[in-house]
Amino acid sequence: MAGENFFDKVEKIKMPVRIAIVSGTLVLLAGLFVWFVWLPKTEEIKKTKQEIENLERQITQARIKAKDYEKLNQTKAKVDNQFQEALLLLPNEKEIPSLLRKLTELGAEAQLDVRSIQPQSERPKEFYLEIPIAIEVRGEYHNVAVFFDKVGHMERIMNIHNVSMRPISERSTTLITRCSAVTYRFKGGTE
Fold first, then answer.
1. 102 and 33 within one domain
2. Mind listing the pLDDT tens digit for each residue in 55-91?
3. Which residue, 7, 9, 29, 95, has most beta carbons within 10 Å?
4. What is the rounded CA–CA span in Å between residue 53 and residue 41?
5. What is the mean pLDDT of residues 125-154?
6. H, E, C per residue of the chain
7. Assigned domain for 28 exists
8. Which residues, 6+ apart, have CB-to-CB distance to 157 below 8 Å?
């Protein structure tokens, strides 16, 4: 029989040769295992560890950004509030008719005879427009000062320039006062 033949042949081989064949076979199997299984798995494990480290780094960065996001939202809310307050001082839409009415009312409150209030052409600047308004009033010096004070306390920014005063007649305390009131308008609004 073939099976007996094989075992008979194996029994005839000397013991040191048998040990060498078994050892060689084991070394060959171990080498094949290392080459085809262990090394590829080691490389795969190494890549997986790198991916895990990258993902952990991204998670850490995302957590930092999430904390910053809340701070940025609070900062944005503050800036939005400041912008809305600035728009009250520097409106982005023309409000000339209401402004002219307000100046007339302030003149009347200061007991002045408002002779004329005329808006002039706008002067463009970097991010805003200057709107000059020529004003002529008649009244006592003290009343003119009260009028200028009231204009200075208006909600929107208004500056008085080029003030000239002359009495209506020699030795009169009633003055004709001409000046230019300059207000401003945000350029980003409707033109």
1. no
2. 999 999 988 888 888 888 888 999 988 877 776 666 6
3. 95
4. 18
5. 90
6. CHHHHHHHHHHHCCHHHHHHHHHHHHHHHHHHHHHHHHHHHHHHHHHHHHHHHHHHHHHHHHHHHHHHHHHHHHHHHHHHHHHHHHHHHCCCCCCHHHHHHHHHHHHHHCCCEEEEEEECCCEECCCEEEEEEEEEEEEEHHHHHHHHHHHHCCCCCEEEEEEEEEECCCCCCEEEEEEEEEEEEECCCCC
7. yes
8. 89, 90, 183, 184
